[in-house]
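Can you give me the bound-state structure? Components:
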Amino acid sequence: MASTTSPDRIKDLTTVLARQGILIAFILFMIGFGLVSDRFLTPENLMTVVRQSAIIGVMAIGVTVVVLSGNLDLSVGSMLSFATVLVVDLHDKLGAAPAIGVMLVATLCIGAINGFLVGFLRLNSLIVTLGMLSAIQGVTLIYSGGKNVDIADQETTWFAIFGRGEVLGMATPIVIFLGLAAIMHLVIAYTPYGRRIYAVGGNPTAAVFSGIRRNRVVFSTYLVSAFCVGIAAIILGSRVMGSQNNVGQGYELLVLSAVILGGTSLLGGSGTIWKTVIGVLILGFIQNGLLLLGFPYFAQWIVTWIVIILAVWLDVAAKRGRLFSPIA
Amino acid sequence: MTKRITLAATTALAGLMLAGAAQAETITIGITQNNVGVDSYQTTYEKAFIEAAEANENVEAIVLDAGGDVARQIAQIQDLIQQEVDAIIIWPTNGKAVVPAVRKADQAGIPVVITNSNIAEEGFEFIESFSGPDNITQGAYSAELMCDALDGEGQIVQISGQPGYTTAIERQKGFEDRLAEACPGVTIMETQPGDWNREKSQRVMESFLVKYDEIDGVYSGDDNMGVGALNAAKAAGRADGMIFVGATNFAVGYEAMGRGEYYGSIYQSPVDDARNALATAIAVVNGEDVPFLNYFDTPKITQENMEEFSKPVF
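Here's the bound-state model for the whole set.
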């Protein structure tokens, strides 16, 4: 597990700043917005944003695991559309529990196909999951016939708990998001399985020679990702009480942005779940903050881009120990 | 037997066409649609178009779909020119990019009818007619609904459609212009896009609710987004007394209206849209006089008159 945690020498203050750049940027950012808008730091608003971020957040946890193993999963956007349409449509036909069960199985099957193609056939993950992105979009269109699906009985179904309810006095999406993040963080950081993922992502050849079954590990990461999409679909379907077949369109890029913001290396082998959580929250608070300040929507896109570039730069700078490249 | 029923069910318009083309041999009409299956409106449109074409025995229809892809649509237009159809109906994937292909059809002597959303103005000289909804008027109608519901006094927010879409731009313009003119007492505090997406609209409304202590009304570019905004207001316990006005009445909006939670909308039927497009194309082929902007009627629907309308299929 060579490059998992290359022990950087902390040379000076700049390096320290760069090392925890994402967290510092996040805090500065929150203070900045808090000073300009008196609504921004109210508990009500903070909770609203974390709740809104839960869907992207849960997906980002799964994608982080895939990226840690050195691969990509771009199919999560249309997988979310598919899973949400399925669970909402089946809710009225089969009842809530069977609907969730069928949806999770179907979603895991898609993950298994991705995992098989990337893990066992060793096909390029970008190509496999980009193809899957449009294939699943097609499947969703065929399934729904283009129609929106809705849950008829919104007031009494217990399915409402996932998107609209509360657990222990906190909105359920937040509990699911942070709970899942905590569990995955423990699994990835402290179990042999987690170490195998870092190993496969950091140096696949060395991992194989250490007796790690690379194919299986990669396969499993796609199952994790698909499972997270399934959970996100439950939250989304319950929150909206309906779905349309393009509901997850573009989410794959939001999710990937959050993972990159969190400093997870796209080459694999380096990154953490909790930093992805920070990345997700930054994205959520950018959107919310700019909206509260009354900026037009396109300002959000530009600011998001700037923040991502800054975060990636700080991350690279942290790894090489200085802000600018030493080689001209 | 079946045939007789079909004939009896033929609409008055199509009946007129039959009479007009009595001497007639069959005319061939090709249509290339924007993106069937992406939403229920377009799916229903295609179904209605095929039904209307089948009901008219003098018409043979070639029904194509561009799948949202401009390049594919241009190729389809070229194919239809090669096949020497009598008229081409286009639902543009992109109002500007299809103009050269439309010009080619015009040069080949094939009349073109644009359906649902118009092409860019520089293409107007190459087309015979535009058949579709009048989005500006729809926006104006929504403004009047909002004005009536608020008695001319209040503060509202607007959730618009996807930025860059003609429908979104025109509805917003129609709404804002008419509101300023007919209802100066109602002010729009802020406008943000909901991207035709219910979840996105719900998120936007949640932020509006944090930002503004008093919101009297919400105008959404379609009912799908409007119901998202309603969801958010209900979750915050602030939906009571808040006026929701939308456009393109969806089934969910219709139901919310029935529950008294949603004030009103604009009834736009994809079936009328499809029939109007086919009738326009047939009239053009038969050399009849057709208005250049051939709008079909999209009336206001509110809690009071909703019984007159059937629940939308989408």
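A couple of observations. The CA atoms of residues 27 and 158 of chain A lie 37 Å apart. Confidence is low (pLDDT under 50) at residues 1-10 of chain A.
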